[in-house]
Amino acid sequence: MPRMVILDGNSLVYRAFYALPTLTTADGRPTNVLHGFLTMLFRLEQEQQPDYWVVAFDKTKATVRIEQYAGYKAQRKETPEGLRPQFDYLKDVLTELEVPMLELAGYEADDLIAVVAKQAEAQGMEVQVYTGDRDALQLISPKTNIYLTKKGISEVECYDEHALWERYQLRPYQIIDLKGLMGDSSDNIPGVPGIGEKTALKLLLEFETVEGVLANVDKVSGKKVQSNLKEFADQAILSKKLATMLTEVPLVFSLDDLVYRRSQANKVLPVLLKYDLRNVTRLWQERHKDNGEPIGESPDVLLEDWPERKLTDADWLAQIDQWRERKDPLTLACRYEGTGLQGGHWLEWGIATLGESFTFAREVVSAEVLKAWSELMGDDHVPKTVADSKTVALLLANEGTCLKGVVLDMSLASYLIQSSRPKFAPLDLVKEYVANQAVFENVATEAAALAQVAPKFEEEIHSLGLAHLLHEIEEPLSLVLAQVERHGIAVDAEKLSSFGEGISITLKQLENGIYALAEETFNINSPKQLGIILFEKLGLPTAKKTKTGYSTDAETLEELRLAHPVVAKILDYRQLNKLMSTYVNGLLAQVKDGRIHTTFQQTVATTGRLSSTEPNLQNIPMRLEQGRQLRKVFHPTEPGWVLLSADYSQIELRILAHYSQDPLLCESFSLGQDVHTRTAAEVFGISLDAVTSEMRRSAKAVNFGLVYGLTEFGLSRDLGIPRKESKFYIEQYFKRYSGVKQYLENVVAKAKQEGQVHTLLNRLRRIPELLSSNRVQRQFGERIAMNTPVQGTAADIMKLAMIKVAEGLKPYRAAMLLQVHDELLLQVAPEDLQSVARVLIEAMENAFPLSVPMTVECKVGPNWYDMQSFKPME
DNA sequence: TAACTCACG
DNA sequence: ACGTACGTGAGTTAC
């Protein structure tokens, strides 16, 4: 449950002022309130870890209450001399701490507190109110607790309904009756003369309210009390009214404005020092260090000059020998021509080790030295640090050389430390930690620079708990990916071409048809021109707009399908044109020797997924039949071999089940049920048999949405239903799957505190969006917080599986061809099909066992289209 | 280069 | 009152 912490600024400031001795800055400004208030603030921040918080202040020139009663607070003294300026100081500091503040002319902090508390409760939050004013006890509810300052300010006493009863034998709503009877001298609420706390409590225990007391005034014991009650009945009623916190306040704010944000050192430290708050500064630093603070703020490596040693042929042999003998740690940089994948070749290597650097140039060394070099690279016992091991491995592979012994891949390390950073090129990596100018004059200085910052990466990796993920998963995987890329996948270019010819013909017909219906020719591929034709010339109704004009995307056009015959043709045209340009032409341009070699990007996706480029083989058409046909062109390289695919079934929902431990979701997977059907049964409150396909479709959309950070809007759009209906689905879902709801709330709350989330294997994603001043951005951050642990854990598990599969495949005639997030595609010799399928399933299902079973489904076929379900024999 | 559109999980 | 599902890459147009 999200937690809202509300502080009564005025009350706490007064408490601090009177509780603490006079303290001043060097130039004599009073600061004792700052000390007291901030000490308390930091303590509660640490102990309560609020999700939302706010400090409310009075702004009482002429309060609403003075209109009601002229004497209200009349006798309150002027604000003491040393206190007045401290309000401004405090607001100054709170601003830099990014603690939200509220004040409203004519209202007291009390009233604002009541309003915020009420709204927060309505949003299902737990509310804590910190104040020295017992009036606030009237706000107590099952969800709201009041923390009253005890002696001093930093100690507080928590009041809930139970504690209130224990202490006063009062219900929260009776607090105002208490004040009505006994009054409050500090606010100059008169109450009834002669009635103090004791009498008031006794009366309320018997008669419940002021009204109850007055109605039964004759039964009240004590003559004087009785007569005073009669005489001052009106005053009692008025006093009660004055003590009532107003909740009808014209206060415009959104709870999102009160979201807790981590304070930033560059803002906080200057303002604390401005007021000479040394102890408070120390406290702040203690509370905020080591807690998700962004890295790389203080570059602290001064690059040294590692002298370059020039070697002759004979020296090189001796040197390489020595390196192998002594297992010296080598840091490598590489210059190359072409690309690793397209048979590119390295030109020279920079080598840095133990304060020295070297340039190993192909041109100047003999074949014998090259052979020694090759052995050095393949020696598992010689530890190597590189910036990008996949590229290095590919370049070496082009020479028939293996890369072994990589102990640190700095780009991968950097990616794990900051998954969202845009670049991981060697120079960027070095700049991350280096204070002086880093320029790579040559490959030797590059290696030397990399070697000097490498320990910083290793250090950071360890302190973030990423060592296992880096060394046991990402680094080994990069070598697996190098193999997969290098192998490539066979493509039937002729079939692809003839596929394209067929498309071309249809495309031409559609084009002419569109021109005829539009009665002019134009560029159909231009959304701008298309928009003008559809919405201006043909006058079709405009639904959506983009920044620059009319929206013409498929969703919009689908709405207009019946409005004009040209629309359907445009939709068809779009679909075929996409197939033609992106897939037929795009892929044909990438075919080399009958194969396509994609590049898997390992440092791009912020969630930890791989991506695939040049070409992207992770988005080959599947959903629509026409596009799906394209998969027929992907086939095994070897005649007679088959393609074997293996899909994780519902991996993300299983991970959600594991994280949330929701009983229904877990049970659904343990029993091997169709999870969407089960969800439909739960949401609609019917039996499994009664679920219609339409219900299942809705439930499926809910399940998908869950993983993305469900919104009413998204679901209603996805299902094409009204917001009301999607809201209902979501409510029903969370009623039944309360564990899931709980989990999602927790993960967001924790993310807000830490500014980051992590996956099961501890992959980290910082979410600066959570700190954004823009509400839309913050909500985006919340959805990221819900999605990343799930999507990222799926990526982790698949990566683990790939390493196991690559190892398990070695005895067989088989190769890994592609990874498509939850699917692996292999090619296998028919005689090894059974064994390989068993290895595959075993590796994937048990890569990282969860509390629910993981299941993998295999398919086999002669090409990527004609795939038939396949189960290996036991 | 940005914006739009659309392919995948 | 506003702008919204999560993660990618590629082709095209238009500035």
Automatic annotation (TrEMBL):
<dbReference type="InterPro" id="IPR018320">
    <property type="entry name" value="DNA_polymerase_1"/>
</dbReference>
<keyword id="KW-0239">DNA-directed DNA polymerase</keyword>
<keyword id="KW-0235">DNA replication</keyword>
<dbReference type="GO" id="GO:0006261">
    <property type="term" value="P:DNA-templated DNA replication"/>
</dbReference>
<comment type="subunit">
    <text>Single-chain monomer with multiple functions.</text>
</comment>
<dbReference type="Pfam" id="PF22619">
    <property type="entry name" value="DNA_polI_exo1"/>
</dbReference>
<dbReference type="InterPro" id="IPR029060">
    <property type="entry name" value="PIN-like_dom_sf"/>
</dbReference>
<dbReference type="GO" id="GO:0003887">
    <property type="term" value="F:DNA-directed DNA polymerase activity"/>
</dbReference>
<dbReference type="InterPro" id="IPR036397">
    <property type="entry name" value="RNaseH_sf"/>
</dbReference>
<keyword id="KW-0234">DNA repair</keyword>
<dbReference type="InterPro" id="IPR020046">
    <property type="entry name" value="5-3_exonucl_a-hlix_arch_N"/>
</dbReference>
<dbReference type="InterPro" id="IPR036279">
    <property type="entry name" value="5-3_exonuclease_C_sf"/>
</dbReference>
<comment type="function">
    <text>In addition to polymerase activity, this DNA polymerase exhibits 5'-3' exonuclease activity.</text>
</comment>
<dbReference type="GO" id="GO:0003677">
    <property type="term" value="F:DNA binding"/>
</dbReference>
<feature type="domain" description="5'-3' exonuclease">
    <location>
        <begin position="1"/>
        <end position="261"/>
    </location>
</feature>
<dbReference type="Pfam" id="PF00476">
    <property type="entry name" value="DNA_pol_A"/>
</dbReference>
<comment type="similarity">
    <text>Belongs to the DNA polymerase type-A family.</text>
</comment>
<dbReference type="InterPro" id="IPR054690">
    <property type="entry name" value="DNA_polI_exonuclease"/>
</dbReference>
<keyword id="KW-0548">Nucleotidyltransferase</keyword>
<keyword id="KW-0808">Transferase</keyword>
<keyword id="KW-0238">DNA-binding</keyword>
<dbReference type="GO" id="GO:0006302">
    <property type="term" value="P:double-strand break repair"/>
</dbReference>
<dbReference type="InterPro" id="IPR020045">
    <property type="entry name" value="DNA_polI_H3TH"/>
</dbReference>
<dbReference type="Pfam" id="PF02739">
    <property type="entry name" value="5_3_exonuc_N"/>
</dbReference>
<keyword id="KW-0269">Exonuclease</keyword>
<dbReference type="InterPro" id="IPR002298">
    <property type="entry name" value="DNA_polymerase_A"/>
</dbReference>
<keyword id="KW-0540">Nuclease</keyword>
<feature type="domain" description="DNA-directed DNA polymerase family A palm">
    <location>
        <begin position="627"/>
        <end position="832"/>
    </location>
</feature>
<dbReference type="InterPro" id="IPR002421">
    <property type="entry name" value="5-3_exonuclease"/>
</dbReference>
<dbReference type="InterPro" id="IPR001098">
    <property type="entry name" value="DNA-dir_DNA_pol_A_palm_dom"/>
</dbReference>
<dbReference type="InterPro" id="IPR012337">
    <property type="entry name" value="RNaseH-like_sf"/>
</dbReference>
<dbReference type="InterPro" id="IPR008918">
    <property type="entry name" value="HhH2"/>
</dbReference>
<dbReference type="Pfam" id="PF01367">
    <property type="entry name" value="5_3_exonuc"/>
</dbReference>
<keyword id="KW-0378">Hydrolase</keyword>
<dbReference type="GO" id="GO:0008409">
    <property type="term" value="F:5'-3' exonuclease activity"/>
</dbReference>
<keyword id="KW-0227">DNA damage</keyword>
<protein>
    <recommendedName>
        <fullName>DNA polymerase I</fullName>
        <ecNumber>2.7.7.7</ecNumber>
    </recommendedName>
</protein>
<dbReference type="InterPro" id="IPR043502">
    <property type="entry name" value="DNA/RNA_pol_sf"/>
</dbReference>
